[in-house]
Amino acid sequence: MLLLALACVSSLPTTHGSWVVPATETPWVASRGPGRTSPVLGGSTVCVSPFAAHPGKPPVSCADLALNGATVTSECFALPLSGAATLSVTPAARCEGPLPPADTLEFALVSPDGLSADFAFWVEEAVEKGVELGSVRATFPPDWRPAPGASIPVAAGGKLTVAARLRNAEGGAVAWGARSAGVVDAAGARVHEEDGSVALTAAAQRYRFEAGGQTWPLPATEAAEAVAGTLSMVVAHSFDPTVSSERALGARAILRDAQGRVVFGAPVVWELEGPLLAVLDPWDAGRVLVYGSCSLRGGPQEAVVRVSYGGVTVHEDLRWEEPARKLAPRDRPEGCKGDRGGVRENGGDALTALVDRLGPLVPHP
Question: Within 10 Å of residue 209's Cβ, how many Cβ atoms?
Fold first, then answer.
């Protein structure tokens, strides 16, 4: 899943940097400086696998764990409901070779009071954050996301996956354990994956978030018919004001129904002409994500991105400047056909490259 590196596996450094603690199945958790995490819902079950932080050396997983002084015998354990949650990481006596000294990681527990839940459209939110910071150029229509409390219109035959999120009163994300909390449908069936993602379909469905005996409402979904004549496109460009250069990050198709509401997940068709490489977003058929260039030369570059739906096609011309560089054909990213790029249907390397570019922009508390 695209969110994997952002929400499902987060590397949390200990207080003195001796160990790195990857936390899995804990959507939205992040480091808040050495030895401290972002807010985490009290009582959450987290899964960790610490490894030694030896610069330039392969990671070594050889540690004993204790939570608030009590020995932890499993990689997955429940955090306290409140109070302190200090994870002690100690080099295991059973292991040979040099290991770093003992260190600690503090989980920042929060209570469920005052929290709310929503579905995050994380790519668009990351782009909006980049616009705010001046590192991304993009213009979304003001109603691109459903209004609070409104249902999400999903196009038949399309694909839409969103990220379930808890938020505090300030709007910041609160991490939660995917084993101990999460999203259920109207029948009470769990519908989220371990990374917090939820696949939405073109059907009338209601959802709620449950944790520790408490419940929060989530947006419902409904089937909607996208009108081809409303098709438009938003292209996001990364921007470096120090050199006045930019390159496309990706594009989003915008379609509306007869009532003028933005419809999500419509099965649009993407084309990319020129040296740029892109990958179809596995979470949303309406997004294509640019991750590389097949050009071996610096200087001015051109490409065209097109999106089609129901016999209607819109396009945007892309122009940017590549820095001067010396590259060999072997340096081209996977998926290039000589100097020509295009749109790939899948590719883990492409998604990793995209996460590297967008990761710093993902909204956090």
Answer: 24
Cβ contacts of 147-151, under 8 Å, gap ≥ 24:
149/219, 150/219, 151/219, 151/220, 151/221, 151/222
Residue 175 burial (CB < 10 Å; 0-12/13-18/19+)? buried
Distance CA 318, CA 303 (A): 5
Comparison of pLDDT for 255 and 135, the residue scoring more? 255
Residues present in the chain in total = 365
Q: Which domains does the chain have, with CATH numbers?
A: 4-110 (no CATH), 116-224 (2.60.40), 227-361 (2.60.40)
pLDDT tens profile 63-105? 999 999 999 999 999 999 999 999 999 999 888 778 889 999 9
AA letter at 337:
K
Q: Let me know the angle formed at the C-alpha of 29 by 183 and 122, rounded to the nearest 5 degrees.
A: 65
Give SS3 for 130. Answer: helix
- Bridge partners, residue 193, by sequence: none
Q: How far apart are CA 320 and CA 298, in angstroms?
A: 10
Q: What percent of the chain has pLDDT over 90?
A: 61
258: number of Cβ within 10 Å: 10
DSSP tag of 149: T
Evaluate whether 285 touches 267 at the Cβ level (below 8 Å): yes
Q: SS3 for 24?
A: strand
| Tokens 């990671």, located at residue | 59
How many CB atoms within 10 Å of residue 245?
A: 14
Token pair listed for 191: 């519908």
Q: Considering only CA atoms, which of 58, 48, 37, 46 is closest in space to residue 89?
A: 48
Contacts of residue 263, defined as CB under 8 A and 6 or more positions apart, other chains included, come to: 153, 154, 155, 224, 225, 226, 255, 256, 257
